[in-house]
């Protein structure tokens, strides 16, 4: 499903990012190898035109005249507001992160690093194999294709495979099975949305529990109910709408509602 929501990003929405203005005479960095192997999804009005990195810094190119939204790094530890520097026509973020979020109110765009691409030199940590499509909405959802990608290099390799198939019924059932397999807690109350998402295909992930969960839920991003995982230090998984931030103060102990 292609969304056609266009939002005006107002200055109050930019409080999560602190821009460092630079003059027109900034010096470009020395020649480097750039990795463009990033996947963009979510709200197009907030997304950059492209994202790439050189192993140390990440560069985002927004459309001319497009306001820079609030930028956040996303990892297993949660979200972190990022300062940025203007390097016209680019925005520079220090570091290389598994995923970046661009937020404007309740709207979200996402840039996901897919692993070492043609310009990158780091070996992939694992592979995602898929055969078929998971449904990304309610009973009559349009199937959304799982990306065929290498896992993020921030995730350690794993010999454990996490498989999903229509025989398991829904994404919630898959996450329950995976959590038991990995020693995590995922109870019915930890699925916080009101809809179950049926599976219409198979997928297999080998880069670890958190990466597998993130990749499975990423298939919902362009559907009616985009979802994201929240991982907690006591090995509890919650699934929430992509439009809300992971609440680190929520009761997530075993048996908590």
From TrEMBL:
Classification via Pfam families: CagX, TcpQ
Keyword Membrane found: no
Keyword set, alphabetical order: Lipoprotein, Signal
Domain Toxin co-regulated pilus biosynthesis protein Q C-terminal stretches: 167-241
InterPro entries on file: Conjugal_tfr_TrbG/VirB9/CagX, Pilus_synth_Q_C, VirB9/CagX/TrbG_C, VirB9/CagX/TrbG_C_sf
Keyword Metal-binding: no
Family: Belongs to the TrbG/VirB9 family.
Protein name: Putative lipoprotein
